[in-house]
Amino acid sequence: MQLDLGGRIVDLSVPRVMGILNVTPDSFSDGGDFVSVDRALRRAEEMVDQGAAIIDIGGESSRPGARPVPEGEELRRVVPVVEALRARFDVPISVDTSKPGVMRAAVEAGAAMVNDIYALRRPGALEVAAGLGVPVCLMHMQGTPETMQHEPRYRDVLAEVYGFLEQRVRACRAAGIPQMHLLVDPGFGFGKTLDHNYTLLAGLKRFTTLGVPVLVGVSRKRMLGEVTGRGVRERLHAGVAAAAIAVHKGAHIVRTHDVGPTVDALAVVTAVRAHEHLEAVR
Which of 161, 165, 229, 244 has the most CB atoms in a 10 Å sphere around its CB? Predict the structure, then answer.
């Protein structure tokens, strides 16, 4: 399995790390840290040096309770950073947005992937994404960032999240997006309780049957803090453990703030997998 990101092929036969670069003033973990182009470039350079295979740029916070950002403001935050990173680094760039206008402008500026928490459900998003011809990650979210943690409920969280993503993959295929351009993300923390999140992590293997790469983002999230008692910036070890478990359960890409430690952890998982294969063929 592989992704063609603007002519740069990312081999997913081994797990890859997507580095998070939030150019927002209010993201839950790093809000305000990288709002200038220079600071964003320095952070991107660190992540590239640490082994990030993709850099994911976001200009609108999706933390619980976050309010929407006007399109013009999101464009102002995102496009200059995409242009600067594309000029300086060879690493593929993803844009974390649900707005069709931002998708189009970011791809024109050099982004090679769209990461959409609404799974292309906003008006015009499906059509624009199909026309852009770049890979798209479809994420599950119950509600909106403003409302998603107001008593989320499911009868069977694993079945319902799987069914939603299956339906979105079908909708994208019908709109002309080829299967090789699709990824799915179960959306940890997006309209889920602690129990929902760990049920999804335990059952992650099921999502690999959709026939597209699985992307997972658990970095620094509340689901880690609730079982460790750690604050947002103290969840590195828990996040690395969750990333390794996710990859063991079938994830192809891990989205994280903590690139270097996660790259190291996934190298160990990859080494174990290689030896499991050797044992199986003996």
Answer: 161
